[in-house]
## 1
Amino acid sequence: EKYLVVHGPNLNLLGMREPGIYGTMTLQQINEILLAEAAKHNVKLDILQSNNEGEIIDFLHGNRDVDGIIINPAAYSHYSIAIHDAIKAVAIPTVEVHLSNIHSREEFRAKSVTASVCIGQISGFGYYSYILGLYALIQHNRS
Ligand code: DQA
C-alpha cells in the first residue's frame, strides 16, 4: 500500500509557529515519526508540503495510483473548493487531519469545506492526528 501525505500552507514553519497551538515538533520530525509508523505497517508514504493550492492539486492528480491520502489542508480547509473538487475527482480514500482542534478556536476555523469529501476528519491531537489518520486509512483499506 502507498499513501500520500499532504501538508498545506504554513506547516513548513511547525516548531516555531504558534507552538502553544501547534506544538514544538518540526515538520521533519513529524514526517520521520510518520514514516517509521507507516513502515511498521508496510505502508509507503509520499510526502508533500506546499504553500500553493495548485501544487497540492497537481500532486493529487499526478499520484492517482495510491491507496490513500492523509491531508492537512491547513487554511485551505476553510475555503478551497478547488481542493475539495480535487479530492472528489481522484476518488481515493482521504483522511483530513488537523493538529489543533478546529472546533474550539475562531469560528472561521470550525467549518471545513474539504472534510465532506473525506472518509473522516481527525482534529486536536497535535502531531498524533497524523498517526491517527494513518491508522484510520489502514483500518479502512484492510477491513
Ligand atoms: C490547521 C488548522 C487551520 O485552521 C490552520 O489554518 C492551519 C493548521 C491545524 O493543523 O490545526 O494552518 O490545519
## 2
Amino acid sequence: MKCSQGENFSKGELQRFGNIELSPCAGVLNYGQGLFEGLKAYKTHNGNILLFRPEENATRLRTGAERMCMPSPTVDQFLEAVKATVLANERWIPPPGKGALYIRPLLIGSGAVLGIAPAPEYTFLMYVSPVGNYFKGGLAPINLIVETEMHRATPGGTGGVKTIGNYAAVLNAQIAAKAKGFSDVLYLDSIHKRYLEEVSSCNIFVVKGNLISTPAIKGTILPGITRKSILDLARSQGFQVEERLITVDELVDADEVFCTGTAVVVSPVGSITYLNKRLFLLLLL
Ligand code: PMP
C-alpha cells in the first residue's frame, strides 16, 4: 500500500514475492526513514491459525511512525493486511510444534527527497518466511556477553521504536560476539554504562526469589510485546514484578535470567560474560 505525506494509506494488494523499485533518492535509503515489525502465525493441532496479539504490533508501528515523521496504516489496515498475507501463504506455516510463519511488515519512506526532510511518499508492505528456533540448540540456555563500548541506543534517540537504524547499530558488536562463540549481546545504558538495557533482538528479565525484574521502558529499549505478556502473566501467577533500573552487578545474585521476544520467544540465559577493563567476571547462572 502507498500513501503520500498527510494522506491515508490506500487499499493494499497481494503480490508475488520479488524485488521492489525504489528511487535512489528514497527517504529510507538516504535518511533512514524505515520501521518494521515482526510477528508470528502458528498452526494449531485442530488446524486453526493463531496470531499473537497482532494489534499490539499495529499500535507499536503507529507510535514509531510518529517518532519517524511517517504516516502509518490504521490498526484495521494493518490487521487486514496481516490476515490476507498469512491466508495467502498458509501452506508455508510449519506444523504445530515445528516453528511458525514469521511476518515482517515494513513501512518505508519510498518517495524521493534530497535535503534532510520527511519523504513525500510512503510504502507499507510485508513478507513472510517459515522459521524455526532463533538460537542454535532450540530452548537450550543462551550465552550472552555484556557490551561495554558500543550502545544500541541513547536517551532522546530512536531506541524505543523499531526503526531499521537501531539494527545497523548492533551489527558490529553482534558479529564480534558470535565470532567468540556467544549467542548474543547484552547492552548497557549509554550514560552510566552500568544499567541493563536489552539484547539485540529481545528484552531481558532477572529473577530473584519471587521478584521478577526487567529494565523500565524509558525510550532506549523496545517495548516488547512478549515482555508485556510475560509481565502480565507473572503478576497473574503471584510473582512480584518490577520495571526498574537494574545494574549489571545485580546479575551476580540472580537466581535466573531469561530473554523474551517474538523471535526468541522465552529463552533461558545460561551464562553472561562481563569483561570490564579492570575486572573479568564470568557469571554462571
Ligand atoms: N528488543 C528488540 C531490540 C527487538 O528487536 C525485539 C524484537 N521485536 C524485542 C526487544 C522484543 O519485542 P517483541 O516481544 O515485541 O518481539
## 3
Amino acid sequence: MRSSDIRRTFLDYFTDRGHTRTPSSPLIPDDPGLLLTIAGMNQFKPYYLGERQPPQPRLTSVQKCVRTSDIDNVGRTTRHATFFEMLGNFSFDDYFKADTIAYAWELFTRHYQLDPDRIWITVFSDDDESVRLWRRIGVPESRIQRLGMRDNYWSMGVPGPSGPSSELCYDRGPKFGPEGGPAVNDERYVELWNLVFMQHLRGEGDGKEDFPILGDLPTRNIDTGLGLDRLAAILQGVDTICETDLLAPTLDVAQELAGRQFPGHDGSPESVSFQVVTEHARSAAFLLADGVLPGNEGRGYVLRRLLRRVVRHARTLGIETPVLAAVTGSVVENLGGTWPELVAGRALIEAVTTHEEESFGGTLRQGGRLLDAAIGRVRGTDTTRLSGETAFELHDTYGFPIDLTIDAARAAGLTVDEERYAVLLDEQRRRARGGGRGRTADQERRLDTYRRLLTRHGRTDFAGYTGTLVET
Ligand code: ATP
Ligand code: MG
Ligand code: MG
Ligand code: MG
C-alpha cells in the first residue's frame, strides 16, 4: 500500500465515523513553551485544557512532527526519524477507551489487513480496564504487556494535558531479534500506534517519568498517534523507514551521488550515513518550508544541525559534490503533491541549502583534520574520551555541531566530554550576552543574507533566531 493510500484510508475511516478532518498545524507551534510540533495533539492543547471549545467533538488529522530528541537514533534504529507524519484521531469529551480500542483494532486488521496474530498490545501498568477491553476484542493475555511511565504514560514533556496510554505494536519476525514482545525488543515488535487516554494535568518536572500529576482535566478525551513512516515500512515490506516510498527517492539520490548502494540496515557507519543523509534531508526541507532558517539558537540551530549532519555524512560516503540542494530537492519532488508548502518553498529551500553548504563546506575540511588529529592523539593514550575543549573548538571555530563530533568520536570507539563542552558553551554564551550582542559578525552577515533571501522569495515569517525554548 502506497503512503498516499495509507493516509487516505486513515482519514476516510475516521471521517466515516463522524470525525472532521483538520489540517496539519505548522512545525512552528502556536505554543510559547514548545520548540517544534512533536505530536498531532499539540494544536488541540487548549481543547484538552478546557480553555477553548473544539469545533467538533471528533477530529482527525495528518500532522507534521519534528522530534530533535530522536536525532541520534536515526540510522541506528530502523524506525526513528527526526521528521515524520503522525496520523491521529481525537475525541473531546466524547468517546473514550472502548471505542478507541475498537476503532484501532478494526482499522488495523480489516482495512490495513495487518495479521492480528502479530499485533502486540502494551498498556499502562495498572490499567485493568484496557486489558479487559483488548481481551474482549480477542487479543490473548500472552500478547498484552504492562509497562510503566516511560513507555505508557504520555505528555508533551512540559506541563499540560497527559494520560495513560495503550499501544499497538507489530511483530516483524526473528530477522529483527529475539522474541518476548515490545517490553524486551522494540525493534522487532515495532511500536506503531499510541492511544492516549488524555485525562490528567501534569506539572513541572524532569523527563518522561519524574513529574507530578496535578489532577484531572475537566473532560475525558482521546488523542492517538500512528506513525505513517513505520506503518508504511510494514505494509511495503521494507526494513527501514528510509526504504518506504516516503523516502526511497531521496535515498536513490544519495546512492547516485555516492556511486554505491545502500547496504541495508546492518549497523555499519555507511548504513547509518545513508539513512542520516536521506532522513535529515526531509526534515530540513519541511522546516525551511515552514519558515525556519538556519541559525545558532532554538529552531534555527535544529535546522543547522540537520543540514550540517547531512553534509558531513555525505562526505563520509565519498560524496564530494554539493549534496543538500539535490537531496532536499528530491523531497520537494516526492512529497510536494501532498504538502504544497514544499512546492511554494522550493526556491527558498534550494537557495538556503546551497548557501549553507557553501559556508559550511570550507570549514568542514579544516575541522575534520583537527578532529582526526585529536582522535589520533587520544588513541595514543589510555583514555577513551575526547576533551570538552576540542569539542568546543570544533563548534566555535569550525561550526561543528556537538553531535557531529560525538558521531565521529563514536565511530572511532571514543566518547566526548559533553559536560565540559556544555560548561564552555555556557561561558561563551554568557560572555556574548555581556558584550551586548549574542551574535558574532559572521552570524550577523549570514542573518542579513537570509533576510534578503526571504524578501526575495516573498516570505516574511522569519523564525530562524528565536530564544531558548523547551526542546523535547
Ligand atoms: P518510540 O518509543 O518508538 O520512540 P514514542 O513512544 O516516543 O516512540 P509516541 O510519542 O507514542 O512515540 O508517538 C506516537 C507514534 O508516532 C509512535 O507510536 C510512532 O509510530 C510514531 N513515532 C514516534 N516517534 C517517531 C520517530 N522518531 N520517527 C517516526 N515515527 C515516530
Ligand atoms: Mg520516542
Ligand atoms: Mg514508545
Ligand atoms: Mg509511544
## 4
Amino acid sequence: MSTVTMTEQEPSTTGTPMVRADRVRKSFGRLEVLKSVDLSVEAGEVVCMIGRSGSGKSTFLRCINHLERIDGGRLWVDGEVVGYRQRGNRLHELRAKEIARRRTEIGMVFQHFNLFPHKTVLENLIEAPRLVLKEPRDVATDRAIDLLGKVGLASKAKAYPRQLSGGQQQRVAIARALCMRPKLMLFDEPTSALDPELIGEVLDVMRDLADTGMTMVVVTHEMGFARDVADRVVFFDEGRIIEDGPAAQVINDPVHERTRAFVKAVR
Ligand code: ADP
Ligand code: MG
C-alpha cells in the first residue's frame, strides 16, 4: 500500500535522507502553491514527481534548490536545514554566499537547456568548475571530456549549442550539471520541450545516471521511464503530495481517484 498524505514523518531508519520535507508551505502573494508537502528521498533513490500543471512541482524543486524560500514547515537536504545553519537547536539564517555554496552541491536540469550560446560545449562544461570550484583548467577539462563520453557526445566538445539537436543540448546540460559533482540531481520536465524522437536519448542518459547510484528527483510525465527507473512515484495535487509509493503501484494501481484520473490521462 502507498502512504497517503503523511502528517508526521517517522525518523529515517536508513541514515540521513537526501531530501526531507516536513509540511512545507509556499505562497506567492495570496496564491498558496505548496499547502503542505511531505516527502523523504533516501540517498541513491530515484523519485519521479507527477501531477497536473500548476500543482506546485516546479516550485517544490526550486525550494529544494534554494531558489525559493519556504513560508512554513521545514526542508532538509542531506541533513542540513535549507536556508539555515543549525547550532544546537537554534537556526541561523544563511548568508547569500553560503546559500550559493550549498547550491553548487545540487544539480538542476530544466525543460530548456540554458546553455551559454556563445561558448562551446566544453567551455559550457568547465565554466562553473573553474569559477566556482576553482578547479585548474586541465582537471575540469579532463572530467568534462569524460562526462561528455558518458552522455555520448565525446565528439561534440568543440561544437556550439546551436549546432546540436535539442536532445544533444539536453545531454550537454546534464553533463554540465554533473561536472559540479552534485550529491543530488533535480530534473524539471527535462524532455517536455523535445521532439518525440529525441526524448529516448535523454531518458537513456538519465537511466545510466540512476544506475550509478545518483539520488534523483525527476518531474516527468514519461510513465515508461518512471515505471522502469524510479524507485518511487509521488503524485502532486494542489500543493500536496497525496500519493507516494512504489513506481509500478502508483502508475498501475493508484489509491487515490485523482491519481487514477491523472495517470489514465497521461498514459
Ligand atoms: P507545476 O510545476 O506543477 O506546473 P508550479 O510550481 O510551476 O507548478 O506553479 C504552481 C503555481 O504557482 C502556478 O499557479 C503558478 O502560476 C504559480 N507560480 C509559480 N511561480 C510563481 C511566481 N514566481 N510568482 C507567482 N506565482 C507563481
Ligand atoms: Mg513545472
